[in-house]
Structures are given as structure tokens and as C-alpha cells.
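Q: A reviewer asked whether we had any structural model of the full assembly, not just the individual parts. We don't, so I'm hoping you can provide one. Inputs are below.
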Amino acid sequence: MAHSKKAIPWIIAGAVGVIGIFLWKPTVLVYGVQRAGLYASIALPMSLTSGILHIVNLAHGELLMVSAYITYTLALLLGLDPLLALIPTMLVMAIVGFILYELTIRKALKGPELNQLILTFGIGIALSQIITLIYTNQTRKLHLDYVSASMTIGETSFGIWDFTFVALSILMTIGIRMFLSRTKLGKAAVAVGQNPKGASIVGIDVQKTYAMVFTISVVLVGIAGSFFLTRQSLFPSVGSPFTMKSFSLIAMAGVGSISGVLYCSLALGIAEAIINGIPHMSGWSDIVFFLIIIITIAVRAKKTRKI
Amino acid sequence: MKRATSYILPVALVALGVLFPLFFGPYPQTVARTIFKYMALALTWDMLFRSGQVSFGIAGFFGLGTYAAALLALKAGFSYPLAILAGALISGIFAYILGFLVLRLRGTYFSITTLALAEIFRVILRNWTSFSGGPEGIVLPQIIFNGDSRCLYWIGLAVLLVVVVVSQYFEKSKLHFSLISIRDNEVSAQTSGVNIFRTLLVVFTVTSFLQGLIGAVDVVSVGYAMPDSAFDSNYTLLPLAMALLGGQHSTWGPIIGSVLLGVASEYLKLKIPYGHLLVYGVIIILVILFMPEGLIGLFRKKKGAKRG
Amino acid sequence: MAKLTTKNLTKHFGGLVAVQNVSFSISSGEILGIIGPNGAGKTTFINLISGIYMPSSGTIEFEGVDISLMPACERAKIGIARTYQLIHPMEDLNLIENIMVGFLFAGNKSMKEARRLATELCESMGLRDLDREVSQLTMLEVKKMEIAHAMANTPKLLFLDEIMAGLNSDETKEMIALVKRLAKERDLAVGVVEHVMGVIRELTDRVIVLESGEIIAEGPYETVSKDKRVIEAYLGGTA
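A: Here is a predicted structure for the entire assembly that you could use as a starting point for your response.
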């Protein structure tokens, strides 16, 4: 109850803001929501690893990029539509995730937090450089007809394909929630996330749980990667900004909060779209995330210090 | 006796460094200059890392120094030596102010925030076109010493020596103890009288000043600054990998690591134009997993085993 | 004269009260025992005195000066020191270097001076081979190092948090003698948290008993140990 009461002013402020933006430039709202969908579908898998394994995977954006390249390659080689190539891509990403976990993360989990950070930073570099070795720095893009589908309401028209990201992020949220609450592995994962020692005492295989959760999160970011390819041009460093953005969303939402990531994506997606909507300001939109991350981290740090 | 012998190696190395351009031509000089630059950055990163804080913001303060020096030289008519000093100072002052925000943070939060700061600097300088020249950056009318490769080499070496001296001071003074105690046990450090925040603020400011200095000298040596080159993430990646490979928490570690990786990367750059940085990623992974003490650590272990 | 006085010292974490309305004082040369069941707030109390935590309310006075909000590193400089229940030395420093930290920062001594003073201190406490890594020390040596580490602040007030835990009876006797001697030689006010009642009886002049963050009894060990509320607290009955 107290929680929902606190939310009321926020909801009112949000509603007023939305109406204001709608009157000013309706497309801003559309693009903001679409952006939010993209950010959320990339951040949600990271939220899973940081919530349960308690590591920040700095290679997260690179995994997105790798998956997009795999989809791209499969689409070219087999002549598949990327959304069909998604299925073999998921399989490959599962293998990549599992191997990464077994060879590197597993060992680093025992070490200090900073080692994990530096390790995944190194993995990110290695992944982007492997892709550079194979594909060089040249920009790659698939040309798909359906992504340019658009819609006109009144006098404003806008692309509608990007709403798939919104759908994807909502599906992912539901999927992750169901996984954590309904499946045996999911319940074990929640227990391990809260207290690994306690979980192992009651007979949960902690290592196996970690491995599965990490693999699942890599597969999920892989799905996001396949969709990412339908819209964006690929180059080896295309993923790296998304690591930061995902981390910002998670820090803002609070580690482990799945639906929080969704709301925060919405807020930041619209904030970015607003700045993009102002003439000559589009270059500044990147700063939204970085400022938000610094502010939230600083506020949170202050809170924890008081306790 | 022991004292005297321990000076022989450093003095010989410095002499070798100073005399190098008399025997080698412009290309080796340029390679050496690049290595010096990364070596100096690796040392500055390690100096802060000795307190247990991992900065991903090296590129940020390097780039800040770069732009500050270039803009002051171009727009305010500062002479190059003055611009270099001012560039370093501005970088240090920014770090001092931002330190009040970021040095309250620990672990992952500190690291990511330093990364975010570097990105903010980049975005600002990229978009504030009227002030910074935007994405195309700024070109200086001339290179310092009219581009004489020997002089450029020597000034690079001079900056490196300044950084080495500061790093040694960190290792030999009281700071050494406060940094280790912050790294090992912050709570107990406090109750032994270590002012953690003030110590970190000093170190953060000094290392950022030095990073700004390295950036400022770099920009007058190449003659231009662009947001994507001044804040290139390689300025964070390479020094980090070099320091880790050589051995963290020391002066010698980053020096050894940057010579090895610097020479290797120069060779690989020619062989594999795309993707040679893979080596750095792999080195970081391997060192963290199998050799957390770096090459210096292997040497220390051997020595320890002999003694024991 | 009282070295340290607390008035209505209270600390809560969220809704959980760890220390409540604790008023007490301790004088130079006095050894005070602090006992109570697990979770009674003994360690929180030491954390408040040493400045790891700031009090939610109430005051702490040291030598007549209010230090309630003084940061921990400043308290170390004016002569407050403590040991930790979970001893976690600086692993990247060797034995003597661990001891030097207090002289260097709390005492603001030079490197040379700190090394000399640390050596002197260690020798007076029976610690030898001062260049050893801390991982090579025996349990007794670790405990002595922990005390020496605190003594390096050259304190006037010293709190020992379960420093005897894990020692055998001979070692415990040696430590009791050591603490008594240090207190006497340096006119220290010493606060001792211990679980072993024998140690409290041997070592302390006076005892305070904490339960659920509050003082429930105070006085010489002989009196306190017969107090009904104290016995109930220890037997787990609710008073």
C-alpha cells in the first residue's frame, strides 16, 4: 500500500508529461517508446545476471553484437530471414554462453569483484576484436522490406517495425518472471541469488544454477541481437554503448528489479527522444544516460551510507 | 652497498632512453614514443589501482588534457609549454571536483562512473561545435619543436620520467601504506588514522593531472585533437592490459608490461591490420584467471621459493 | 576522571535497534568488561565509540570533548583504538608494516620513526621475526599483532573485541597478563568484550551487561554475575 501511494505523484507527473509531449510532437512519444523497447530488451538479460550471479557483465553489449553478426551470417549463408535465423542463433549463443561461463566466469566468481569486472571487460574486447578479425570494420546491413513499414495517423507518420522491440521487451519480462516463479530452476536461481550458501545447504547445485542462468541470459541477449540486426547497421563496436546503457538502467531500477528496468527504459527512452526532437540537439541525447547513471549512483551511494 | 647497486639498472635504463635517438631513426623513435605514452598511462592507472579502485576513465582525463591544451594554445594564444601545464592542471582540477562525487563510490560503481565521466567529456566536446570544433576536432597551426622527431621523443621520455618518479614516490612514501591499507581493509585503515577520502582524492587528482599532462604533450606532438581520437577507449584498454600483464601494484610491472605489449602490438598492427587488439583482450582474460600477480608476480614467487 | 562518557547513546538500523540509551563512563587505568548474549549490541557499541558508525542519537565525550560526529580517522588521532573480532590484517603488508600503519597515520610519524616505534612495541609484546608475512603467524601471534596494531595509535582508550577467542588456557593467561600490563604501564582505559566469563573475572575491574542494546546491570563481576536479570538474559529467558 505504502508503495503504491508513493507512486501516485509520479504517475500524475508522468501523465502530465506524456500529454505535454503528445501536444508538442506526437512522434517523439512513439520513438521514445520504441527506443525504450530496444533498451529494455537488451538490459533485461543483464538484470538477470547481475541479480542472481551478482556480477556486472561488461561484455554484455558485445554479446549482443556477436549474436547480431551470427544472425547476419546465417541469413546470408542460408538465405534465411533473420527472424528465422534467430533459432539457430539462439543455439549458438547458448553454446557461447555456456563455454564463457565454464572457462572464465566460473573461476572469477570466486575472486574479488574487481577481477570479475576487469575479466568481463577483457572478454568484451576479445569478442569485438574476433569479430573485427573476421568481418573487418566495414559496416554491414541487411535490407529488409518489412522494417520500413509505416503508419500515418492524422498528419504524422512513423515507422512501426520498432514496436517489435516493445513487444519483445514485454515478452521477455513476462518470460523472466514466469521462469523465476514457476520453474524449478528459476526458483533455485532466486534462492541462489539471495543466499548462495543457504541455497547449497538445502541441496541446490549452485554452480549448475549459475551456469544455467548465465547461459539463459546470453541466449536472451542473443534474441535481442537478432532483432537488433533487422534495424541497425553492424560494426564491431556497435554493441559497446549498450553495456553502459544496460548498466545504467539496472542501477536506476535497483539490482534484481525486472519490471523496474521496463519503467526506467521508458523514462530514458522518452527523455532521449525529446532531446532528439529538438532541432540540432540530437548529438546530445547520448548524455542523458551518462548523466542519469551518475546521478542515480550518487544518490544510491548516499542512501546506503546513511544506513 | 645494496643501495648503490639498486640504482645501477634505473640509471642505465634512463641513459639508454635518452641516447636512443642518436642510434635509431624516426620510425623507431615514433614507436618508442607511443610506448612511452602508454607506459605512462599504465603507471597512472596502477597508482590508483594500488588503493583497490579500478578506473575505466583514463581516456577521459587524457582527452581532457588534450583538449584543454589544444584549445588554450589555439584560442587563448598560450605558448605550448604553458598550454601543456594548463592542460594538465585543468585535468587535475576536474578530477579534484569530480572526486567529491565519485570517490564516495566503491567497486563496480566507481569503475562504471569513471567510464561514464569519460563518455560525458567526449559527448560534450563532440557536440559543442562552436567551442571545440565538433566531431572534426581542431588542428593546431604547428607541431611543437617544428616536428623534430628527436625532440618529440625526448619530451615524451621526459613526461614518462615524471610519471615514474611520482610512481616511485607513491611506493616509497607513507602513501604506499595508506593505499595498501585502503585496498586490504578500509574499516581497519580508518581506525588506524587513515583519512580514506582525502587519500583517494589526492591520488585521483594527481593521477588525473598526469593523464592530462600525457594528453597535453601528445596533442602538441601530433598537432590535432578529435573527440573520437582524444577519448579513444584504447587509452583505457591498453594501459590496463599492460599494467595487469607486467604486474599490478608496482612501478616495474606496468613498465615491463607496456614494453612487451607495445612492441608486440606494433608488430601485430603490421601483420593484422584489423583485430590485432585481440591480444589485449586475451591478455586481460588470461592474467585475471591464471596470473593475477602478472609477470612480476612470477618472478617474486620464484625468489620467494628460493628464499623459503 | 572519566576518559570516555556516553550519554543515551542509541543506534538503530532501519527499524532494528542495536544500541539503546547506553550511558556509561570509563576512566584511565580502568579495565571495563562488556558482556551480554549474542546480538546484544556489544560490537555495535564499539563501532560507535571508534567511529565506524555514527550514533542515531545520544553523545560520546572523550576527555570532555564531544566527539559524537567525529570521523573514525580523527578519533584514532586523539587516542582511541580498537581491535576487531574478525581479525583481517593487511595481507599485502608484513608483520612490522601492519603495526607501522597506526604510528604513520594516527601518530603522524615519519617512516623511519614509525618503524623504530613499531619494532619497540612488538618486542615489548614478545613478537619476533618481524619481517614475516602475516599468513605465517600462529594464532597467538595474530592476536598479539591485532593488539599491537591498535596500540600503534598510542591510545588512551582501547577496546578489545573478543581478543581471547580461540586461544588455549595458557595462551589466554599470557594475554590477560599482557593486557593488564599494557593498561598499567600506559595508564590506559580498556574496554573488553569477551564471552569467556573466566577472562572477565580475571581481567576486569567493573562490568556492564548489555541485552538487546540496553545496559541491564553494572558493577564488579562478582555482583553482576549474581544479578537475576543477567542470569535470565544468559539462560535465554525474557526479562
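A: Points you may want to mention in the reply: Residues 174 and 180 of chain B are 10 Å apart (CA to CA). The two ends of chain B are 24 Å apart (CA to CA).
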